[in-house]
Amino acid sequence: MFKLIKPNFLSKAVFGIALFLSTAGTGSQAQQLKYVSGNSTWDADSLGNHRAVVQVPVSGPVARAVIEWRRKDNPANKEIIVIDARSNQRILNVKTESLSRETGTIYFEPVSGAGTYYIYYLPFHVQPGSNYPTAIYKKPNDRTAVAWTNKITSKPITAKIDYLESFNQLNSFYPMEVIATAKEVNALISKNKDQPYLIFPEDRLHPVKMEKDLPLRWILKGTGKTFTDTADRGENFSFQLGLFAASKDLHNVKLKFTDLKSSAGDVIPAKLISCLNTDGINWDNKILSKQVDINKNDIQSLWCLLDIPKNTNPATYRGTVTVTANGTAPVPVQINLVVSQKTAVNGGVNEPWKQTRLTWLNSSLGQKNDLIGPYIPLKINGNTISLLGRKLILGNDGMPAQIESFFTEEMTAIDQQARPLLASPFALIAEQTDGTALKWKTGKPTIRQVEPGEVIWTATNTSSKLQMDIKASLEFDGFVNYSVKLTALSDVNLKDIRMVIPFKKEVAEYMMGLNLKGGKIPADYKWKWDVAHKNQDGAWIGAVNAGIRFALKDEHYTRPLNTNFYLDKPLLLPSSWGNHDKGGIDIQQNALNTSVTNYSGAREMKAGDTLHYNFNLMITPFHTLNTGDQWATRYYHKYNNVDTIKATGATVVNIHHGTAINPYINYPFIAHDAMKNYIDSAHHLGLKVKIYNTVREVSNSAYELAPLRSLGHEVFSKGKGGGYAWLQEHLNADYIAAWYVPEVKDAAIINSGMSRWHNYYVEGMSWLVQNIGIDGIYLDDVAYDRTTMKRIKRVLTQNGHPGIIDLHSANQYNKRDGFNNSANLYMDHFPYLNRLWFGENFDYENNTQDFYLTEISGIPFGLMGEMLEGGGNPWRGMVYGMTNRMPWSANADPRPIWKTWDNFGIRQSRMIGYWVKNNPVKTTQQDVLATVYLKDKKALVAIASWAKEDTKVKLVIDWKALGIDPKKATLTAPAIKNFQTAQTIAANEEIIVKKGQGLMLIIE
Question: pTM of the full predicted structure?
């Protein structure tokens, strides 16, 4: 079992008692009621997460229990289940009356006489084993016997309520989800009827969780104009102001802080205090300012952050925070903060239940655009910008005039021979209704190197009716970002505005995107926008060693959701390129070039109107193949004993979520002590350990869940709610239910896209590297942009850490994912990955070699990969240097192939793929391919068939290129379990290659 460090995660822990206290002068009393955390001792998936434990003092036919349960939900149509504690059997004679959110009256037959009975009041059922379950709450079902029902009218036995018990602490409603009664709330409002809103200062250990109900805790405490708490020096301190809009809507709520001063004159400056809900630093390092509005009768928590300086003198510091809202008088709240003599370790982030990590949400860690290996500084020479293996040459209009690649066909080296990608420069054409194009008057781009890894330029081009202003940048990895603003100088009617990308025909060999799977580029193709259904705004076109991924944007672009959720938040149609669905892309091949015409169709522009024809490019490949790493690094993708893993020959362990040391999805901070012990043990054996951690969704165990929800939809997506019971009971509505792990009852919700949660993610990864010793991350699809990926790579590789990142993707080419290609979707991240694992729902049997090359292998981008679905096809995989990953797929153990690699000495070999024109070993059939792994006077040849039936082939061998004397050569197929039997083959012999299979030969 893993150790949970969350406070009070104890068996039968009594974690709250509402005492007999006056309820803010209402004249009523809060009933004494204990709230207890159970120890997961019942089947919650059939009985529910909540029960009342009652005592029946004497025997009799009918017992009556009145439960002051103070619930957020409506209990009227939910079943009540009563269990006899002695026999653990369900009692069928049960009747209810007066079921309200505040109290419930239940009659039942105490079949075992005096003793303990359990009343379950939120029972539900789910589909067993489902990872996307929907809890269905059971409806009342009368099972009572008539004879027993008639006894209810006689005087029943009064059952005593011992306590309310939740399945575990995480499921508890106490104290912040125990509602105040209507009478209590009305009395409180009446007492403060001159106030447009009520303020409830609240400490950080009691995050506000309800938006529609006041908690009983606030009734007992009353409203307050003073907040008092303690903190350590150097601590990331936080507190809340809960605002209840009692009488009117509130608009533009803001907080203003004063300095905090001690009696000795020491000062904590006001500039160190901020409100998380109104101000911060966004994921893109830009200042964030948000407007907070509160609807009448709603509750809003405002989180206040203060990072106390380490050199603060211990004392009591006093100041004020003033609440303002449009049309209301400012309301000051006194702050009394006692700073202790203790100094917090690392800001207190090792105690995240104190909300010490909320400061991470405003982090700029990793934002400095430093170079990341293996990339080199950019160099400017006139209009030419050089980067690793590539050059971008600008025209005087600021557009790409030429792009060159220097990568060899083998993709294992960079040479001096340039390979131009373009037949002519990019052209942005504004065509008038008479068919004539406006003529651009160009100047010369102003080019400036911001830092070693970034060059920016501007250019202005004018015509008689339009002005084109260009702001663009190139980064060290080959990412080019263009902001192109067109301004109408006068009223103008246009037939079209289009951008033509004229590829050289021999470069435009493959294509991926725009509703096409990866493969040979069609000679003639037409595509139209369909953002409601398709996550498509561009494509990759190129050859193995030279290509461009282009994507069309406008100034309103936001990253859509992906991985099952595209339809919940799709692309926004660019107003420029899309033009009310008039736009599209035509691809036309002729004798010399392949033109990609990105058109937007007819439109009118009035003088002063602007349109943003933004786009970005990725110039591929990003770097050479690291074949040595491919042969040496072998993944074990399962949590297991480190000695067992070491014995397999694997070198890197991937730890999924839902495991003992990483139980909660995308929140690897709770069982971190166990994780560190495991990693230390692995390091002792020479193994590296990577963990599953993405930001697509967040576990319901996250300490910061309530503060994040207080930010509206900044972090979490809008949605219809539902999902597992915990989500329905605690979040109520307006979220998208995500992955669920039944074994640990981990339920997650979907993030909204790019947000400050990505700042937290970067800081969290840095903390894991420094404190837990992780060697990298395993990404299961990616829900963030390239900026965040660069930040992650920087923190993972800090202080010499290896920072290994491998990316798995399920095939995104389907309806729910918007028919995007995984490689195209994630290409922005490719420059920082170490390996691909593509992936679930990839068909390794019925797709072409061109699909393998472009969508699975990673080779045209400088990456290598592995196969997943069904273990992949081992013969086909070998022509791309791929195996499967152990021990994920049954009956697909890669170790026999690894052994063959080692026996041959593949780490010292040079990989020459079948796509290389002068590959020294070919076959006589076009659909039977050969890749050579060449050493000194020795070669391993991987052969795989895409033929539709068993095929006879001969080898065509360039002996000179192999450096082997044919007269002395031997060709042997070593025995490889589940791959091939041993045999010896003559050089000119016909070889039978079975359909969908192949073989490995050693020539020496």
Answer: 0.95
